[in-house]
Amino acid sequence: MSGINQNDMDIEIIKALGDEARIDILNIIGKKELNASDIAAKCTLSRPTVSHHLQILKRARILEARKEGKEIYYSVNMHTLKSLSQTLLKFIGMGFF
């Protein structure tokens, strides 16, 4: 096996997006770049819970991370989301729906 294929990556992305808290986090981040404390301050989740969800989103390549000093700033990886949407559109185009 040569590693992870596109279908496996798409499945991981869909799993990561299957949690309401993670969708809320993505909406909070939007087009900005925020750290876990900034995100926690804007939602009802604790900072440790936010950090947990951020790691899942990062592993799925939905978020990109940039370290600045002791802080890690997160932003949405639009390439990953666009790639997923293209895969879904191809699937729909095959007539499965």
UniProtKB/TrEMBL annotation:
Pfam families: HTH_5 (PF01022)
All copies of domain HTH arsR-type, residue ranges: 4-96
Keywords per UniProt: DNA-binding, Transcription, Transcription regulation
A GO molecular-function annotation: DNA-binding transcription factor activity
PANTHER family xref list: TRANSCRIPTIONAL REGULATOR, ARSR FAMILY, TRANSCRIPTIONAL REPRESSOR SDPR
Identification of the protein by name: Winged helix-turn-helix transcriptional regulator
Source organism: Sedimentibacter hydroxybenzoicus DSM 7310
